[in-house]
Structure formats: structure tokens, C-alpha cells
Amino acid sequence: MTSFERPMPVKTPTTAPFWDALAEHRIVIQYSPSSGEYVFYPRVRAPRTLADDLEWREISGMGTLYSYTVARRPVSPHFADAVPQILAIVQWDEGPRFSTELVNVDPAELKVGMRVRPVFCDHPEHNVTMLRYEPAS
């Protein structure tokens, strides 16, 4: 059987503050004063207003499970050893939604609307920290 190395995110000048904060086990996302809203994914202009006013602010990372699916077949050969994989969308308390993976939970215990908290998964061999989620209780 062929083994595939998992793809890892590539840090860019626009996304570097997000990834650098995760390496410190903190979460920072952008905030737009012109729209009065937090913004995610990282970008160079504020959505809707197109203002050049985005600033990085730390958030708690706490949120609510907005949606999820349990992938019982690998989503690609790179994840053959990771099934079942619980793919999820978490809505942060600050507003934006974040695509992630749930860990440390039995799929039978999941419920849309449940509170979740961040889990920082360090991958020193790739110099990256991934943000995952688990039930808050």
C-alpha cells in the first residue's frame, strides 16, 4: 500500500499572523472597523466595504458547532489512516465560521449547536500548528 504525506497549509504574507499566533496557541483573526465585524479567512481588504482597515485581534476561539459530517471513507488517499474523520464548521463567538476537524469525541455525541473549544495540534516536522475543536463540556 502506498503511503501519502498529508498536505499542510502554506503560510503567505496575508495569512502569516494567523499561523504565527496558532504556533503560540493563540487565535488571531482580522477585524474591520469600517464594517464593525470580525473577518475570516485572512484577506487584504474588508468584505463589503473594501476598506484597507483590517486589523488583527485575538479571540477566545470558543464557538458553537454549526455543521458537521462524519467521513467514514477517506476524503483523499492522504487521510486513509484517519477515518472516521469528523469534518466540521464552527461558528466562533465573535461571528465568523471556521472549517475544521473535531477531535476527542465520539461521533454519536455530536449535536449541532453544542459548545466547542479549540485544540492546538502542533506538527513540528512541518513547522505548523493546526486548529481543531472538541466538545467544551
TrEMBL record:
Gene3D superfamilies per UniProt: 6.10.30.10
Pfam families to which the protein is assigned, alphabetical: OB_ChsH2_C
Every ChsH2 C-terminal OB-fold domain range: 56-120
Entries under InterPro entries matching the protein: ChsH2_C (IPR002878), NA-bd_OB-fold (IPR012340), Thioester_dehydratase-like (IPR052513)
Superkingdom per UniProt: Bacteria
Descriptive protein name: ChsH2 C-terminal OB-fold domain-containing protein
